[in-house]
């Protein structure tokens, strides 16, 4: 486990920071700006927390993870896009992984690699997730003449369990969405 955490703390190409686990077990995203400005230790940083949601009429357990850059966005920087990757984990629990994508700074491959390194995404799904993330971001930033850009994409995972797949309940599928 400690080896996996150590791997997650290394900065990947295309990522705007790094994800690491605190001694308390919380995931913390540290942006490059934090590395440059180590004197500002009191600065607020978003925590990556696991939250249990009550589901009285469903057997779905939902966990929420958040990955994002610390600090307020600078208007001179590339636009930040808030995203949610929704998928089921090995225990069939529905997980929401929230993160920011800084256009022009982050890369879809870098984000997918960070998610794999943090143990939130199966390595077999990194390529398909990166492709769908890039497609969603490109459609959002450069909408075509065919109408509004999609705000959500559902796609099949390579690590699908050996049971009947269901796109609606995300069994064998994942969904990536732009949120406000």
From TrEMBL:
Domain of life, per lineage: Eukaryota
Keyword Cell membrane: no
Region (Disordered): 1-72
Biased composition (Basic and acidic residues): 42-55
Residue ranges with Basic residues bias: 1-10
Comp. bias (Acidic residues): 29-41
EC number: 2.7.11.1
Keywords of the record: ATP-binding, Kinase, Nucleotide-binding, Serine/threonine-protein kinase, Transferase
Single Gene Ontology MF annotation: protein serine/threonine kinase activity
Alphabetized InterPro entries for the sequence: Kinase_OSR1/WNK_CCT
Serine/threonine-protein kinase OSR1/WNK CCT domain span: 81-138
Catalysed reactions listed for this entry: L-threonyl-[protein] + ATP = O-phospho-L-threonyl-[protein] + ADP + H(+); L-seryl-[protein] + ATP = O-phospho-L-seryl-[protein] + ADP + H(+)
Protein's UniProt name: non-specific serine/threonine protein kinase
Source organism of the structure: Spodoptera exigua
Lineage, broadest ranks: Eukaryota, Metazoa, Ecdysozoa, Arthropoda, Hexapoda
């Amino acid at each position: 486990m400690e080896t996996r955490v150590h791997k997650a703390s290394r900065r990947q190409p295309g990522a705007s920071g790094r994800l690491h686990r605190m001694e308390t077990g919380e995931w913390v995203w540290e942006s490059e700006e934090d590395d440059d400005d180590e004197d500002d230790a009191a600065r607020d940083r978003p925590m990556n927390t696991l939250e249990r949601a009550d589901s009285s009429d469903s057997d779905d357990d939902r966990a929420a993870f958040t990955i994002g850059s610390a600090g307020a966005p600078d208007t001179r920087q590339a636009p930040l896009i808030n995203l949610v990757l929704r998928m089921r984990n090995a225990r069939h629990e529905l997980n929401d992984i929230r993160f920011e994508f800084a256009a022009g700074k982050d890369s879809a491959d870098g984000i997918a690699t960070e998610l794999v390194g943090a143990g939130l995404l199966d390595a077999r799904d990194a390529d398909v997730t990166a492709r769908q993330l890039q497609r969603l971001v490109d459609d959002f930033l450069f909408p075509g003449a065919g109408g509004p850009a999609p705000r959500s994409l559902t796609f099949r995972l390579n690590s699908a369990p050996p049971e009947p797949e269901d796109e609606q309940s995300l069994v064998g599928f994942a969904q990536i969405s732009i949120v406000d």
